[in-house]
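---------- Forwarded message ----------

FYI, see the ABC transporter substrate-binding protein record below. Original note from H. follows.
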Amino acid sequence: MAFRKVIAASVAAVALSVAGAQAEDVKIGFLGGFTGPIESLTPPIFDGAKLAVDQVNAQGGIVGGMLSIVQGDTTCVDTTAASGAADRMVNSENVTALVGPLCSGATIAAANTAAIPGGVVVVSPAATSPALTTLEDNDLVFRTAPSDAYQGAMLAKTLREEGVGSIAITYVNNDYGKGFADALAASFEEQGGSVAANVAHEDGKADYRAELGQLAGAGAEMLVVLAYADGSGQTVVRQAIEGGDFSKFAGGDGMISGTLVAAVGEDAIQGMIATRPGSSETPGTSVFNTLAEEGGVNPSGTFVPQGYDAAFLIALAIEKNGNGGREGLAKALREVASAPGEVVLPGEWEKAKKLIADGTDINYEGASGSHEFDENGDVPGVIMKMVVEGANFAEVGQVK
């Protein structure tokens, strides 16, 4: 009898050991510009993604294990750094998928050098360049923010509705800046406005007075800066004010940060107009806002809802795929993001796990809206109008 008990105990121990071996943890990566021209925008986006990971683990974990997230720095503007960070994630950390990068050039570099060769799904919450639409990516690169082809048209519409008749554009000379500038210029002129000048500039310079002289000489009533609040955008605006070149400013999502206002002075840019991807008014939006506030995350931060959605979608796809491997994940991502299916809202991980286990199709309706990925991995998204009020940008409403 004693011998039988020993045998039974040994069998049980082996069974537990096998179960433990099967219940492996899953690792995903987050690539963002923790240093460089968007260093004030990146941490809140990471917090949004981390909130999704924490909710997954608090509600039973993923494919029998726990979900973890590791971070890497792309600097936003250094494609070599972005490629190196992606290579570490894909080949050393062995992540299943990536949230980010955030900047368009970094995303393209990371995808081409590491993610696509490694078969790793990329979901960027903030890379908005139209160049990503035509990237040859083997259906591995997705984004939860709309393309600047759309945002450019919406910024043009916003400015025309404000009565702005002529603009000068300066843009950071990379995939993000050029794509945004081209879309804005074309749409602004289509809507009856005049683009007096459209001048590229390099990020990281100490002096942009030569470019500003060219821009001011064109005689436009407003300067549109398509760059980064912690980089060239801040310097351009500050030097434009100091030199008396412009008194009216507008910008895109990369310029929306309280650090810009603090750096150039509240009085100097009161009323500055900007646009950014936002959240549609869906049930998922209000649910996320509550969850984020409870978790100490700012739900209205630039690209924060998109960061949460990217991480939560990846987790849902991994659960749907049934393992922590890379193969089949893109197909699973499309399945969990699209109708038809039972709706799953932010934070409803336990519900989603049960539905997936029962073989029921799900449709994630996220913090920033629906994510019905098109054939290029793009989403239509929502564009919000922002205006500087006091020490920061305030949300005015959706541009329709």
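H. also flagged this: Residues 51 and 264 are 33 Å apart (CA to CA).
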